[in-house]
């Protein structure tokens, strides 16, 4: 049975890193007889340049028909001055909300070979393996009303709305409990229930779900403390579940614990497990076109895609093992390079993963 993948390289380093991921997926497609087919399209700034909008209706239709989507990253200074309604990020947000990709899985896994690249001491981070489950389709990034208005006194005021319905909280809660169940059975729900009503309800719903998952130990933590604990003693966490904005921030902090944001894949899933896969980082315009970006987060996103949306865990493991092997062999892109390791370009890293796949 064929599985159709929509590939959206996007902007900045997007095309460079997606090319490497596609190289790797094409290889496992051949060696494992996966029946994958690929189709490429535009989203983000490149789509604005061609169609005048960051996500064309035809692209969205293709995304709806695909079994999974592989995305590089969108955005860059070229499009920063455009009207907010057609900025590159709007395309990404529209894709997430139209396909109801509400469960964002962001693993923060420290490869033992990269302990030295972490900003924290080896004893604090070695063995780190956290999964952040971020609600992606609601919260303050989507809440209405929103905007910038002029008050009676002539001063301008920016405003956003932070809201979550019980059903939105329940569905992300269930995803997180399920994930915790498959891991070490610990789930920490992060909120700001001492200040924000929306997160008081969040906490109440998480508590209500807990008895249905007796094998999972649920705890709660305020977001300010969670930020502190992530850099103080990150190994206390197994699975963290949180809302859209807190998850955005905490997952980037967790990313740095692992050495580089260039190592971290992510999945954004709908209720049936269909989803979009992308690295946690952005389009890195500061290094675009230089051939130095780390493609491993995108390659590992491809592995997550095989596991979570396409039901091909063996091929996923083969890719993950190959990434471990190239790190063992000492290959490093600039962002994770340390003394005594071998510095390679984006495409050389992709080639090394291919060689490790055999
Ligand atoms: P960024 O993640 O693009 O870059 C932050 C830093 O990390 C930069 O120094 C960059 O060089 C480095 N970096 C990122 N990915 C790397 C990789 N694979 N290898 C090596 N180094 C890497 O974040 P930013 O600079 O805040 O944002 C740049 C643009 O990306 C903005 O337009 C932003 O809106 C967009 N963005 C897009 C997404 C997305 O598409 N999902 C996510 C975040 C930011």
List the helices and strands and how they pair.
Elements: E1 3-10, H1 14-31, E2 36-40, H2 45-51, H3 57-65, E3 68-73, H4 88-98, E4 103-109, H5 122-125, E5 129-135, E6 147-150, E7 156-159, H6 166-182, E8 186-191, H7 197-209, E9 217-222, H8 223-232, E10 239-242, H9 244-257, E11 265-269, E12 275-279, H10 296-308, H11 313-328, E13 331-332, E14 342-343, H12 346-357
Please outline what is shown here.
The protein has helices spanning 14-31, 45-51, 57-65, 88-98, 122-125, 166-182, 197-209, 223-232, 244-257, 296-308, 313-328, 346-357, and strands at residues 3-10, 36-40, 68-73, 103-109, 129-135, 147-150, 156-159, 186-191, 217-222, 239-242, 265-269, 275-279, 331-332, 342-343.
Mean residue pLDDT: 95
Instruction: Give the termini distance in whole angstroms.
Output: 25 Å
> Hetero groups bound?
nicotinamide-adenine-dinucleotide
CATH architecture designation of the largest domain: 3-Layer(aba) Sandwich
Cα Rg: 20 Å
Shape: globular
What would CATH call the homologous superfamily of the largest domain?
Isopropylmalate Dehydrogenase
Strand order of the largest sheet: 2-1-3-12-11-4-5-10-8-9
What structural category characterises the helix and strand content? Answer: alpha/beta
How large a portion of the residues is in β-strands, by DSSP E? 15-25%
- Profile the largest sheet: 10 strands, mixed
Strand elements, count: 14
CATH class of the largest domain: Alpha Beta
The third-level CATH topology of the largest domain is Isopropylmalate Dehydrogenase
| Helix count, DSSP H or I runs of 4 or more residues | 12
Number of domains: 2
Indicate the percent of residues in helices.
40-55%
Low-confidence stretches: none
């Amino acid at each position: 049975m064929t599985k159709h993948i929509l590939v959206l390289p996007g902007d900045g380093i997007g095309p460079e890193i997606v090319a490497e991921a596609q190289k790797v997926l094409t290889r496992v497609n051949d060696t494992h007889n996966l029946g994958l087919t690929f189709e490429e399209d535009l989203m983000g700034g490149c789509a604005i340049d061609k169609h005048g909008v960051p996500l064309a209706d035809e692209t969205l239709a293709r995304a709806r028909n695909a079994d999974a989507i592989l995305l590089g990253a969108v955005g860059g200074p070229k499009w920063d001055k455009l009207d907010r309604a057609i900025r590159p990020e709007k395309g990404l947000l529209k894709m997430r909300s139209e396909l109801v990709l509400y469960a964002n899985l962001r693993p923060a896994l420290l490869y033992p070979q990269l302990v030295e690249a972490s900003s924290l001491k080896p004893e604090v981070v070695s063995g780190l393996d956290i999964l952040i489950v971020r609600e992606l389709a609601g919260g303050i990034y989507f809440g209405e009303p929103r905007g910038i208005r002029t008050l009676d006194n002539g001063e301008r005021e920016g405003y956003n709305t932070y809201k979550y319905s019980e059903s939105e909280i329940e569905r992300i809660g269930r995803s997180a409990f399920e994930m915790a169940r498959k891991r070490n059975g610990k789930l920490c729900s992060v909120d700001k229930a001492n200040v924000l009503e929306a997160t008081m309800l969040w906490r109440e719903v998480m508590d209500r779900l807990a008895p249905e998952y007796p094998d999972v130990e649920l705890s709660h933590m305020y977001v300010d403390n969670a930020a502190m604990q992530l850099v103080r003693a990150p190994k206390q966490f197994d699975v963290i579940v949180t809302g859209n904005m807190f998850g955005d921030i905490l997952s980037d902090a967790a990313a740095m614990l692992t050495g580089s944001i260039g190592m971290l894949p992510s999945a954004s899933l709908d209720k049936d497990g269909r989803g979009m896969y992308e690295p946690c980082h952005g389009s890195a315009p500061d290094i675009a076109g230089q051939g130095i970006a780390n493609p491993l987060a995108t390659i590992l996103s491809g592995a997550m895609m095989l596991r979570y949306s396409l039901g091909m865990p063996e091929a996923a493991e083969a890719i993950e093992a190959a990434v471990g092997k190239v790190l063992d062999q000492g290959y490093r892109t600039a962002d994770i390079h340390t003394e005594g390791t071998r510095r390679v370009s984006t495409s050389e890293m992709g080639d090394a993963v291919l060689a490790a796949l055999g």
